[in-house]
Specification:
Elements: H1 9-26, H2 34-43, H3 47-61, H4 67-80, H5 82-89, H6 100-114, H7 122-142, H8 177-180, H9 183-192, H10 195-214, H11 227-244, H12 253-263, H13 265-283, H14 288-306, H15 318-338, H16 341-372
């Protein structure tokens, strides 16, 4: 098991890779050549880099801080992280599904609970990953109409965008608990596993992805999480820890760039839409490859500028966070009540601003939650 005394930059490097995947996958271009489409499909599972490392970070934190303070912190972060839900959906539907911040905080809370007294056995972590991942497909086979309100499983009314019935309209049902919660214990397992164990897992997952695709599983179906796609995600986790092997404290310039980005991934995530906007503008004058490079560079400099902003003193008070939460939740409700062409845009703009405020002042939130249970 890698030491937790020094900062393990392998975790940051993997998160940095996830940040690059975000740029590649999120730039809104739909007229693609075959190589460009392949790159986007390869970047599509990039969110698992955040999920798997979040579980590892939670396991490290629970050795340093009381589990109760961490659970409180994750709970508040889950609620305020709904600003991303509003950016995606823009209306009251923002609270009808588990999005990226909800699943990250739920998965982190799960790992905190598992590790609260001592490191969780490797067999238990692997077994839980199999159970949580397999529940989705078992439930589909036995109870095909059950979706748990879109929180446990993907909503029943979801139609994949590649299905003719979708009429070309993309739908984003979020990251339901099953199977995505399985990534967190799997990430921690891989972090503590030997290089040979990760190699075996990687080979098994590649085989599963290929065989299931041959048998009809759609390898690009992210949102309903086909077997082929989930195996693809698991492959990335095994592969990333097979390459980095955990416990890394030194690297080269490129590695340092990824590690720095991963260390500031929360800020990167909230500010990267600005970079995507810049990339979209460049695309109109150039091509997608140049747009990707430009967006990545802009994301780097925007993040670098944002982390220089110091937390605001006002957020040392719990009341400030409460008021911020009330403003956040009122946005999609007002949009539903007033229902004008402008309110949806205003909701998204306010959610974006609140997201930036959150990532700048999240150290204050961590301090408050620690004091609340001390």
């Amino acid at each position: 098991m890698p030491s937790t005394n020094a900062r393990d930059i392998s975790i940051d490097m993997i998160k940095g890779l996830g940040c690059l995947c975000i740029i590649l996958a999120h730039l809104p271009i739909f007229t693609l050549t075959l190589p460009q489409n392949l790159i986007i499909q390869l970047a599509g599972p990039g969110t698992v880099f955040f999920f798997s490392t979040a579980g590892i970070t939670a396991a490290i934190q629970v050795r340093r801080y009381p589990a109760k303070s961490l659970l409180l912190y994750f709970g508040v972060l889950s609620i305020l992280g709904s600003c991303w839900n509003i950016l995606v959906h823009g209306d009251i539907k923002a609270f009808a599904s588990v999005e990226i911040f909800q699943i990250i905080t739920l998965g982190s809370a799960l790992i905190c609970w598992l590790e609260r007294n001592a490191p969780c056995p490797q067999k238990t972590l692997l077994l839980l990953s199999c159970i949580f991942g397999g529940f989705k497909y078992l439930s589909q086979a036995i109870f095909p109409d059950f979706d748990g309100g879109g929180w446990l499983l993907v909503a029943n009314d979801y139609i994949p965008y590649h299905d003719p019935d979708s009429l070309g309209k993309r739908s984003f049902p979020g990251f339901p608990i099953f199977p995505w919660i399985s990534v967190f214990p799997l990430g921690l397992f891989c972090y503590r596993a030997t290089k040979s164990q990760n190699a075996i897992g990687m080979i098994l997952m590649v085989t599963t992805s290929v065989v299931s695709t041959y048998m009809g599983s759609n390898p690009i179906e992210k949102w309903d999480t086909s077997i082929a796609f989930l195996a693809h995600c698991y492959t990335y986790i095994f592969l990333s820890f097979w390459i980095l092997n955990g416990g890394k404290t030194e690297t080269n310039r490129i590695g340092n760039l990824f590690a720095w980005t991963g260390k500031n991934s929360l800020t990167f995530f909230f500010f990267h839409p600005l970079a995507l906007l810049g990339g979209l503008i460049v695309y109109n004058f150039s091509n997608l490859y140049v747009a990707w490079i430009f967006a990545a560079v802009i994301a780097y400099f925007v993040t670098k500028g944002a982390i220089k902003l110091k937390p605001w003193k006002i957020f040392s008070s719990a009341w400030s966070w409460l008021i911020l939460g009330i403003i956040l939740f009122s946005m999609p409700i007002m949009d539903t009540l007033i229902d004008t062409p402008l309110t949806g845009g205003i909701s998204r703009l306010m959610a974006f601003i609140i997201g930036m405020v959150l990532c700048i002042n999240v150290p204050k939130l961590a301090e408050l939650t620690k004091k609340a249970v001390s």
